[in-house]
Design brief:
mainly alpha
């Protein structure tokens, strides 16, 4: 029992907890990879090292990860300020849909007008004009469908 406690004590910091979670994940997925008939070492090498082999692959990782990172930062900021943001995934999806729609249909519009309209729409929940909790949750469900 003291051995397990010393391992947990070694990983007591924030970085340590994350590393421990990754380690546990690798240990738990290794048998599944073996059952699938592959080598866990080769699978982990492909997962961790292959994205770093060329500049194109690295940039693709960054392009895919950036929206998720910004969504996580937004949730962390809201949580630290005392608010629960439980609709972040739906907000990300709906923001992507809205940005695509504006980009496809705003041909010839002034960029300042587009920014102003986006600001006004973004301020509606803050002004009490939209029951944001229910609306954002419902929007997230619709975006995922």
């Amino acid at each position: 029992m003291t051995g397990a406690r010393s391992i947990v004590a070694a990983f007591s910091g924030t970085l340590g907890v994350g590393l421990l979670a990754v380690l546990i994940t690798l240990v738990l997925t290794a048998p599944l990879i073996l059952v699938a008939g592959a080598s866990p070492i080769d699978a982990y090498a492909n997962f961790f090292l292959t994205p770093l082999t060329t500049q194109f692959r690295l940039l693709e990782v960054l392009v895919s990860a950036t929206p998720i990172l910004f969504t996580g930062i937004a949730v962390a900021i809201a949580f630290r300020s005392g608010y629960w943001n439980i609709g972040a995934e739906g907000q990300l999806l709906m923001g992507a849909v809205a940005a695509t729609a504006v980009g496809m249909n705003a041909d010839g519009w002034s960029p300042l007008l587009v920014l102003y309209v986006g600001r006004v729409v973004g301020e509606l929940p803050a002004k009490g004009a939209d029951p944001e909790h229910l609306g954002l949750l419902m929007a997230g469900r619709e975006a995922a469908a």
